[in-house]
Amino acid sequence: MTSKKFHWLKLAFQLKGSIVSAIYRRVLACGFFGIFVSLLYYLKLPVSQPIFESVIPSIVLGLLLVFRTNTAYDRFWEGRKCWGSMVNNTRNLARHILVSIDEITPEDKENKTAALYLLVAFSVATKYHLRGEPVNSELEELMTHSRYLKLKTLNNPPLKIAFWIGDYLQRQYKRNCLNNYQLIAIQDLLNNLVDNLGACERILKTPIPLAYAIHLKQLLLIYCFLLPFQLVESLGWWTGLITALVSFTLFGIEAIGIEIENPFGHDANDLQLETICNTMKRNIDDLIKFNPYVRSHQGNLTN
């Protein structure tokens, strides 16, 4: 119980992953402005204006912030579901390829292994594609050098990898290593992978409407800079501190929405895509170590 309380306190004061660094300048500006208004009030200037409370009702601003945060979290969760589906489709594809495709020649095992690593390469390429980063040596380890060089020239590397996987499946079908029903089932899983890619691209390329984002920021600034005029009569020199606390709350909620609306980046609050891709790589490595039951057209059975 003590360790849990310590962890709670440690988490409460943790800076990494928080939005403090993103909003502290605005919070300090509002706090100093509140102190400035307190000074004017101390000098007997008519700065106390409780009527400003009705300019932007708190409930209206709160509803706007809730909508903004919920919309951003929906995008974050949708991205997580897409990557979860990608993991499941990759595992199912690997299982079908290992079990369903017959091995006739010694080269078939190597080609099958290459196709399995292309499944991992699809996820890794999707990660870089969503981040707008070029392919690198992480992908080179998962395919032949010629294919890696080909990927470096393309605008959408994961789509090309999906094409290579589909081409492999078609070649196995023409060699009678895969029947029609198996081909359809595996192609459906491959189509699901491409659908996951498209869903992630939709999240990435459809940001929150700019007009809404601008309007919310304007309302936040107006509210926070009118707040000292409402509070100064009752709080006096405490106006700056309370204004800073209120602005910290409001700007923080808005910053959280900005932080999670694109879940594919490198920030602490983004999806851990490296971990997901490494998990898929370990899964494929484990499956390749197994030597499943494979039918041979030469009449042999391999265990």
Q: What is the strand and helix layout of this fold?
A:
Layout: H1 2-12, H2 20-42, H3 58-100, H4 106-131, H5 137-140, H6 145-151, H7 157-174, H8 180-205, H9 210-235, H10 239-260, H11 273-289, E1 294-295, E2 301-302
Antiparallel strand pairs: 1-2
Helix pairs in contact: 2-9, 2-10, 3-4, 3-8, 3-10, 3-11, 4-7, 4-11, 7-8, 9-10
Describe this structure in words.
This protein has 303 residues and is mostly helical. It is 74% helix and 1% strand. It is built from eleven helices and two strands, in the order αααααααααααββ. The protein has helices spanning 2-12, 20-42, 58-100, 106-131, 137-140, 145-151, 157-174, 180-205, 210-235, 239-260, 273-289; strands spanning 294-295, 301-302. Strands 1-2 form a two-stranded antiparallel sheet. α3 (58-100) runs antiparallel to α8 and α4 runs antiparallel to α7 (157-174). Mean pLDDT is 88; it is low at 296-303.
Please tell me how large the radius of gyration is: 28 Å
Biggest β-sheet description: 2 strands, antiparallel
Low-confidence sequence ranges: 296-303
The quaternary structure here is single chain
**Which structural class matches the secondary elements?**
mainly alpha
Distance between the termini: 51 Å
User: How many strands?
Assistant: 2
Helix content: over 70%
> What order do the helices and strands follow?
HHHHHHHHHHHEE
Strand arrangement across the biggest beta sheet? 1-2
| Outline | elongated
- Tally of contiguous helical segments: 11
Strand content: under 5%
* Mean of all residue-level pLDDT scores: 88
